[in-house]
Design goal:
Layout: E1 15-19, H1 24-35, E2 39-44, H2 47-59, E3 63-68, H3 74-84, E4 89-92, H4 107-135, E5 139-144, H5 157-177, E6 182-189, H6 198-202, H7 204-213, H8 223-233, E7 244-247
Parallel strand pairs: 1-2, 1-4, 2-3, 4-5, 5-6, 6-7
Helix pairs in contact: 1-8, 3-4, 4-5
Length: 254
């Protein structure tokens, strides 16, 4: 009998662009891709930190290089991606949070969050897709969204708005790019223990609110993201596009 075989998770020969790669989820994602054979290009705004990461990843035997880029600069993003692509995989973890009650939201805070979380994500995804289309190559484009792209959250009206929008353009781009075998998806974590989430976990009331809603009874660790990144980047998810992978510990189950 000819048994079916599990599609490969191996990323050897793939070029991956990881934005927001200098820390937290972005760094974990870069490591996950590199561990599984991808040539990883780390993107962030801090050159010195990127240089250190590339050196350390290379010492591990992984293939890594870096580009200094602010994804909120749309024209620079288009130019840099065009000059250095095409990339088979995009993992965009660049993000910003400015939490406050909706009645206290300022225009500056709104614009700052949207410039990175929505505008930056949209045009970075567009830029990588353009490179793949011009090269006639398939690809996997992944944006780190959030469970807050599916539910509301305390003091998070602007953040939720940005992530709901990412979910929307993901579905539309998946329809557009599907015939070219370019897949577009999001990963939607719950609260992950990073520097970005530290203020929430240092507030006893907010920490209790979070842990009460995560059915598995614990916040996420960056390692919880890594398997999902490899899955969506690889041929193992060849039929997955236009959807969200919720890594929320059951938060959105009820």
């Amino acid at each position: 009998m000819a048994f079916p075989r599990t599609p490969s998770f191996d990323l050897t020969g793939k070029r991956a662009l990881v934005a927001g790669a200098s820390s937290g989820i972005g760094l974990a994602s870069a490591v996950a891709l590199a561990e599984n054979g991808a040539e990883v290009t780390l993107v962030a705004r801090r050159a010195a930190m990127l240089d250190d990461l590339v050196r350390d990843m290379t010492r591990e035997g992984w293939s890594a290089n870096a580009l200094v880029l602010d994804v909120s600069d749309v024209s620079a993003t288009a130019r840099v991606v065009a000059e250095n692509g095409p990339f088979d995989v995009l993992l965009n973890s660049a993000g910003l949070a400015r939490h406050s009650k909706a009645v206290n939201t300022t225009a500056d805070d709104f614009d700052a969050v949207m410039d990175i979380n929505l505008r930056g994500a949209y045009f970075l995804t567009q830029a990588v897709a353009k490179g793949l289309l011009q090269a006639g190559r398939p690809g996997s484009l992944i944006n780190i969204s959030s469970q807050m792209g599916h539910v509301g959250g305390i003091d998070r009206a602007v953040y939720c708005a940005s992530k709901f929008a990412v979910e929307g353009f993901t579905k539309a781009m998946a329809l557009e790019f599907g015939p070219a075998k370019i897949r577009v998806n999001t990963i939607c974590p719950t609260f992950i223990l990073t520097e970005l989430s530290r203020p929430t976990f240092e507030d006893p009331e907010k920490r209790a609110w979070v842990l009460d809603r995560i059915k598995l009874g614990r916040p996420g660790e960056i390692e919880d993201i890594m398997g999902a990144v490899v899955y969506l980047a690889s041929d193992a998810s060849a039929l997955v596009t236009g959807t969200s992978m919720l890594l929320d510990g059951g938060w959105t189950a009820d």
